[in-house]
Design goal:
362 residues, alpha+beta, Protein Transport Mog1p, Chain A, 3-stranded antiparallel β-sheet, 7 helices, 15 strands, elongated
Length: 362
């Protein structure tokens, strides 16, 4: 130290304090404080409104559910028929009702559907109506049913005389002249009636040469058929005989047994119980026999007291044809059918014919 002053030493100098630059603090202006407080308060109110709406909707749905449930319990649907039978009762020939209420002529095809409606009715009243007065819903099917549509039609008949052009050629009549012999009768009418359509004056078909006569010695019947056709039995019993045309059509006769000697309708229903009797047609042949015509108009059933234990079937077989040629010939053959005598066993007939043969030889 010199002259009262401290001498400088070699001590390092103290570092200077860093200089801090002044900075600005930005604060939101007071004018925005009110806006933020209002916005925050409005958001809470919106949430509250949404919650209230949700609660109201949930409460409404729950109330509607309980309301519907209570209504269904208070007003249950009334049953249409409390005591209605579980099955439709189809009565065939078992309808025990008063004759003046439900008179059934053909009981076999009378079906009553007993569907009783029993709402607000006393049990004893229901029973009285259903049994005694038959005022239940009773669908009586004992009414004529429409005939089934035929699957065939007659072939061309140029002069509209009842004979097809094919039949005109078969019998030698004129296909463009409805009354070939000029006697005032149509050719088809004359053929069905057993008269010669080519010759007037009541000339018979049987002696005209236009037809042949077939005689069955076992079942004792005779029938006329076109001379150009072939008659042939199927076997030696002669129970079935075919009359063959020059087309695929033929007429067949065969004999069915009727041991109980039923009338035609009853016998038919035993053979075909599902067929409605109203679809059958009763007719009389020209020889006076009772005949029944099938629904398809292609089979005649013939029975007579001369042979009550037999039923003779005459059938027109058309195959798959939709246009047929011999409907008038078919009717002619049916009308010419005739029983010749009481039926005898085939063995007796053969024995009798053998005796007649030897007597003729002697």
């Amino acid at each position: 130290m010199l002259f009262g002053k401290k001498e400088k030493t070699d001590e390092p100098a103290k570092p200077a304090k860093p200089r801090v630059e002044p900075f600005e603090i930005h604060v939101m202006p007071p004018k925005f404080h009110k806006y933020l407080s209002v916005k925050k308060k409005g958001s809470g109110r919106l949430i509250l409104i949404i919650v209230i709406i949700a609660v109201v909707l949930a409460g409404g749905a729950l109330g509607a559910y309980y309301l519907m449930k209570s209504m269904s319990q208070v007003s249950p649907a009334l049953p249409t028929n409390i005591n209605q039978p579980s099955e439709v009762n189809t009565n065939r020939n078992l309808n025990q009702v008063r004759a003046d209420v439900n008179e059934n002529i053909n009981a076999d095809i009378n079906e009553n559907i007993n569907a009783v409606f029993e709402e607000d009715m006393e049990p004893d009243i229901i029973e009285d109506i259903n049994i005694n007065e038959n005022s239940n819903v009773n669908t009586n099917l004992n009414v004529p049913l429409p005939a089934p549509a035929l699957t065939y039609t007659s072939s061309t008949d140029s002069d509209r005389d009842g004979l097809t052009d094919v039949e005109e050629e078969l019998y030698g009549t004129e296909k463009n002249r409805p009354d070939t012999d000029g006697d005032g009768f149509l050719d088809g009418e004359e053929l069905i009636g057993g008269y010669n359509p080519k010759v007037g004056g009541g000339a018979l078909l049987e002696t005209s040469g236009l037809v042949n006569k077939y005689n069955n010695p076992v079942y004792n019947y005779e029938i006329l058929y076109p001379a150009a056709w072939l008659a042939r039995p199927l076997d030696q019993s002669l129970k079935e005989v075919i009359f063959q045309s020059n087309t695929n059509e033929y007429i067949q006769i065969f004999v069915e047994e009727n041991p109980e000697e039923l009338d035609l309708v009853d016998w038919y229903l035993t053979q075909s119980p599902l067929t409605s009797i109203n679809l059958l047609t009763k007719e009389k042949t020209r020889k006076g026999y009772d005949a029944l015509l099938s629904p398809d108009k292609l089979t005649y059933y013939i029975k007579d007291d001369l042979a009550p234990e037999k039923v003779f079937l005459i059938t027109y077989n058309i195959g798959n044809l939709t246009r047929v040629n011999f409907l008038t010939t078919f009717k002619m053959m049916v009308n010419s059918f005739v029983l010749t005598r009481d039926l005898a066993p085939a063995s007796e007939i053969l024995e009798e014919e053998t005796e007649e043969f030897f007597e003729a030889e002697l």
